[in-house]
Each structure stands twice: as structure tokens, then as C-alpha cells.
Amino acid sequence: xxxxxxxxxxxEQIMWRGRPDFKCFIFESIxxxxxxxxxxxxxxxxxxxxxxxxxxxxxxxxxxxxxLIHLMPVWIYLGGVLFSFRKYRNTAYIVTDKxxxxxxxxxxxxxxxxxxxxxxxITVHRGIFDQxxxxxxxxxxxxxxxxxxxxxHNHTGEGIKICDIPDYQRVFQMIKDLQxxxxxxxxxxxxxxxxxxxxxxxxxxxxxxxxx
Length: 212
Description:
Helix content: 40-55%
Number of helices: 7
Radius of gyration: 24 Å
Order of helices and strands: HEHHHHEEEEHEEEEH
Strand order of the largest sheet: 1-2-3-4
Structural class: alpha+beta
Distance between the termini: 23 Å
């Protein structure tokens, strides 16, 4: 969290900071779409190993290396579950009066920031484990042009997803209000950007909201 806070600008005020709920984060890592496939693959492979050993088929020294390679989908799934603990340690979120910050990654830690002026809308998502554990996801969506190295452009909707937080309702309301006020302050006449906007009836005068 300290590493992410160091990315916040000097002229920004931190309005909220948090991490995903640990139980929900781990449960979602375990019960992911790869689980049924890994279970089925493992049952077939281990059944084949047992059948080969019981009927005196191919020598064990050939079966074991082959099956270790053939079981790769199972190892990938188990590795993802085990490394989810490290991924959790690297995951953190901060909301300031200007945008959303997030950190993540497995071995290499990454930091990302989306200003409110880039966000088009936000939604709340609650999966099965979210509802069971009383948490939710706040999903921000961007709608602007992104440019490639060759100069071409394409529309992108990639934003920042704040996952598995207990106070998802308060954070959703906070981001919605800040995004609305900042967008209004940017798009409408605003007395050359004073501390308080007199050109449009927003409440954006810095940090005068109370999200309780």
C-alpha cells in the first residue's frame, strides 16, 4: 500500500484506500473456470497411470515423465491457486480526488492510474462469493481513443476494477460523484478553473463531500 501511495501526486488528496477481501480473493482463485477442466484432466490421467501400473504396461520410468508433462493443465491450475497468495499481497487500490490507482501483479509489480476524465461510467458487480461474503466489485469503464505505435487508433473500454471490497457501495457512490463533478468542471465554463466552479452547478470545490 505504501508503494501505491507513493504514486499519488502532491496535489491530490486520498479519499479512500483498501485491499480485496482475503477470503473472497482466495476463493475466486480456487473456484475459477479452469477448475472443472483440471479435475477432469487429472482424473483421466491418474486413472491411466493406475491402469498401466496394474496391468504391467509401460515401465514406470517412462510413464511418470510422460504424465508429468501431460498433466500440465493441472499444474497450471495448482500454480495459479498457490501464487494467488502472492498476487493478493501485491493488490491494492486508492481513490483520490482526481482518479483511481491500482497495484497488482505476480512476480513483477505493476501500478496503474485512471483519471476521472477518462471514465465513461462505473458499475457494481457481485459474484456468488461476493454475495456470500458481503463484498463487491466496483468496475470503471473508459470510452476514449487509444493510439498504437503506428499511429492508428481504436476504442478501448479498459478501466480499473476494484475487486472484493466490503464497502463497495460507498466507493461506488464516491467515484460516481467525483467523476460527475470533475467531468462537469472540465466541460463547462469554469472561471479559468478556480477552486470553486461558478460556471456550472456542481459541488466540486476540492474535497467537500462526505461519503458515509
